[in-house]
Amino acid sequence: MSIQWFPGHMAKTKRLLTEQLQWVDAVVELADARIPASSRNPVLAELLGNKPRLLLLNKTDLAEEVWTKRWLESLRGQGPAFGISAVSGRGLGRITPELAKLTAERASRLAGKGLRPRPIRVMVVGIPNIGKSSLINQMAGGSKAKTGDKPGITRGNQWIRIHDKIELLDTPGLLWPKFEDPEVGRKLAATGAVRDEVFDAEELAVWLLTWLKENNVRVPPPYESRGQATLEEIGRQRGCLMAGGRVDTGKAAQEFLREFRRGRLGRNTLDRF
Ligand SMILES: Nc1nc2c(ncn2[C@@H]2O[C@H](COP(=O)(O)OP(=O)(O)OP(=O)(O)O)[C@@H](O)[C@H]2O)c(=O)[nH]1
Q1: pLDDT digits (tens, 9 = 90+) for 220-270
Q2: 59 Cβ inside 6 Å of ligand 1
Q3: Which end of the chain, N or C, is less surrounded by CB atoms within 10 Å?
Q4: CB-CB contact of 257 with 204 (8 Å)
């Protein structure tokens, strides 16, 4: 299965990110706790230079706790990182103190010049649908940034003062995912980072069902068997029928993917090592 992505979009994003970076003191990078490797783009490190960066694994409520712990242990070698849930609010209280620590040098430089400290300016970056708006809303304590369950909903450009210590840039830089590896593309599609129009839902659902089986992930019925037959079962169970009573496997696949993304099949981490 190949997923189309547009080089023009990448070039534009890179330009936008570089422009915005000059205005910020630190960057919060959001990655998906279900795919901590596949949801990050290595080009970011290159763009950031020595700008302080905090890595947050979001959607920990949908990932397997034991894997989140393992991932964080390995990722901390590259800098500060912890898990959050932008929806439940878990872990968000750690963000401000961590950013203050990361930018302490800037604060003492300002103090050294006799300047009053100003809030830390932070840009939030991450791939589409990773939870950037949800995080900003939670931290701002209100519905200040639009959220949605379709990738690419964020528009506009605005600073949001969270409190006297932090200001967030409300046009979070979108990162393009790294698609060269087809497995990465599938995982991004399975977790909802890619628009549904650009991949084949049936093919993806069959791949995911097989992946779950091969990795011994226990899932509730009717998902426990594998392949096309299961799409038939899912369709029958969910009432996805066409004229003549035949199962609509395309609709069944979409239903299955929707349930997986919402965590109805339990918590799952797709990136493992
Ligand atoms: N379960 C769960 N869902 C989350 C979490 N954070 C965000 N979401 C959901 O993920 C979807 C996308 O969230 P947004 O905040 O709109 O993501 P975004 O990164 O701003 O999206 P773009 O505007 O496409 O870049 C929404 O349906 C959120 O409710 C989380 O921690 N847990």
Answers
A1: 776 765 555 588 888 988 899 998 989 999 999 999 999 999 999 999 999
A2: yes
A3: C
A4: yes
Q: Top-level CATH class of 200-261?
A: mainly alpha
pLDDT digits (tens, 9 = 90+) for 23-64: 899 999 999 999 999 999 888 888 888 899 999 999 999 999
User: Which residue positions form the known binding site for GTP?
Assistant: 58-61, 129-134, 173
Compare 159 and 186 and report the one with higher pLDDT: 186
- ipTM score of the complex? 0.98
Q: Backbone phi, then psi, for 162, in 5-degree steps?
A: -80, -45
Residue 194: per-residue pLDDT: 84
CB of 261 closer than 6 A to ligand 1? no
Using an 8 Å Cβ cutoff, are 50 and 79 in contact? no
Is the domain 7-169 a CATH 3.40.50.300 member? yes
Instruction: State how far the alpha carbon of 49 is from the alpha carbons of 17, 52, 73, 108, 158, in Å.
Output: 12, 9, 23, 21, 24
Ligand 1 pocket test, pick from 13, 125, 134 with the greatest ligand atom count within 8 Å of Cβ, gives 134
The ranges assigned to domains in the chain are 7-169, 200-261
- Which ligand 1 atom is at minimum distance from the Cα of 30? 19
